[in-house]
Amino acid sequence: AQTVTQSQPEMSVQEAETVTLSCTYDTSESDYYLFWYKQPPSRQMILVIRQEAYKQQNATENRFSVNFQKAAKSFSLKISDSQLGDAAMYFCAYRSAGLQGGSEKLVFGKGTKLTVNP
Amino acid sequence: NAGVTQTPKFRVLKTGQSMTLLCAQDMNHEYMYWYRQDPGMGLRLIHYSVGEGTTAKGEVPDGYNVSRLKKQNFLLGLESAAPSQTSVYFCASSYSSPPRAIGIQYFGAGTRLSVL
Predict the structure, then answer these.
(1) Coil, strand or helix at A13
(2) What are the tens digits of pLDDT across the range B51-67?
(3) Nearest-by-Cβ selection for B97 from A43, A50, A104
(4) Distance from C-alpha of A116 to C-alpha of B17, rounded to nearest angstrom
(5) CB-based contact (8 Å) between B97 and chain A?
(6) Is A62 helix (H, G, I), strand (E, B) or coil?
(7) Residue of B102, B104, B106 to mutate, testing the A interface (most A Cβ within 10 Å of its Cβ)
(8) How many CB pairs below 8 Å do chains A and B form together?
(9) CA distance A40 to chain B (A)
(10) Cα–Cα distance, A99 to A103 (Å, whole number)
(11) What pLDDT digit, counting tens, does each position of A7-57 carry?
């Protein structure tokens, strides 16, 4: 079974600075997808960024980018120019790319609480 | 755009009571999921469905039942609630993606359930 580990329960960053959240995963599969979800105090789960394992290029979405190291099974999230609205819980998630039914279910890490200081 | 709608948003039950959580999606998605979120545990999959009339167990299915009688609805039932089922419950849906295509999951706003 796949597992996802987020080793930083809490992180803090100054407004306008850059912060990196860590995520490692364990899998024997070669084809899969990785995601970062943001959960603000409203509880709504919001997709931040996603990465296909077969793509070598790191995904980027505006101020959010990832460092995907497939051999190391590492998938970190970098937030540049941090804003107060970035304060939230961030969850790393894994999804198999297999064809069998149910392979689309997500396996989540335990989350990292990000605080942004003004 | 409604997306994924969960009802109710909050509920308090006594031990042994039953209830049903409703999830409705208006995106014509094939796949639907129920997760629970506990402090320090992330989200864990309870049950999921890959189409109307089909359901399957996830990681933590004990004490829950589900039904998918209509494509747009996915019901989560607790027949005899226990304090261990105090949690925040999330429903999600996604389209049935072809190989090499990401099937992004869209989440509801969650239901906070307390069992006393």
Answers:
(1) strand
(2) 899 999 999 999 999 99
(3) A104
(4) 41
(5) yes
(6) coil
(7) B102
(8) 58
(9) 11
(10) 7
(11) 999 999 999 999 999 999 999 988 889 999 999 988 889 999 999 998 889
Cβ atoms B21, B75 nearer than 8 A:
yes
Contact: A111, B42; criterion CB under 8 Å: yes
List C-alpha distances in Å: B35 to A32, A59, A76, B98: 20, 26, 24, 24
Nearest to A83 by CA among A45, A36, A38: A38
Q: Which of A23, A47, A105, A112 to mutate to test the interface with B (most CBs of B within 10 A)?
A: A105
Instruction: Provide the residue type at B25 as one letter.
Output: Q
Percent of the residues in chain A that have a pLDDT greater than 70, as a whole number: 94
Contact A89, B44 (CB under 8 A): no
> Residue B85: what residue type?
Q
Please identify which residue in the block is written with the tokens 């997500």.
A106
